[in-house]
Amino acid sequence: MTRLALLSALGLAGLSEAATVKFRPQGAEMTRLVQAAVAALSTKELPVTMDDTAGVILSIGGSGPSAAPFNPDVAARVVTVNGERRIEFNPQGPLPLAEAVRQELARELGLSAWTAAAARTRLSGADVNGDGKIDLADLAIIMNNYGKATTVGDLNQDRKVDDADIRLFSEQYRP
Ligand SMILES: [Ca+2]
Ligand SMILES: [Ca+2]
């Protein structure tokens, strides 16, 4: 691919991409809090949706009457119950629940902050080298692997690196 073709590809609006996060909120209030938090990450460039059929279980309060009381200083705790990971939020914790949810889920997703920009960098796949930035170093890796059957630089996960991946990169890249 020539440099000119590359630049024109960068200017094109291409395929749309979406990210899915897997969380299993329990109960109406927890579900509402998690949905609101996930909605705040979503943009036209990278819609973020929730799959609640898998992932860590999220609940307000402990699981069942035998659950240990919360340390009053903690907003949330991570426990394993019956082999399943759960994050339990302290209903009387030091943080408002919505804030505690954003904080815990940011840690789960490896987001540096609960912002759409951080989500785009982390979840779009366009940060190929994983340095927290979507920049020309990532494009260089994609170009280096162009035409190859590899997962490095394969943003749409079809096991080859081609124009579709460059278009996806161009949607996430902000010069
Ligand atoms: Ca990068
Ligand atoms: Ca691909």
UniProtKB/TrEMBL annotation:
Residues 1-18 form the signal peptide. Keywords: Signal. InterPro entries: Dockerin_dom_sf, EF_Hand_1_Ca_BS, EF_hand_dom. GO terms for molecular function: calcium ion binding. The keyword Signal applies. The keyword Signal applies. One of its GO terms (biological process) is polysaccharide catabolic process. Residues 127-149 form the EF-hand domain. This is EF-hand domain-containing protein. The lineage of its organism: Bacteria, Thermotogati, Deinococcota, Deinococci, Deinococcales.
